[in-house]
Amino acid sequence: MAKRDYYDIDDILAGQERVPCVLQVDLDGLGSSGSGTASKVHRNARWALPYWMADRLDEEDYVNMEVSPLFAKRATRMYAASPESIQLRAICQYYYQFGMQLGNVVPEISLVLRNMYMRRIQRVAH
Question: Could you tell me the pTM of the whole model?
Answer without folding.
Answer: 0.77
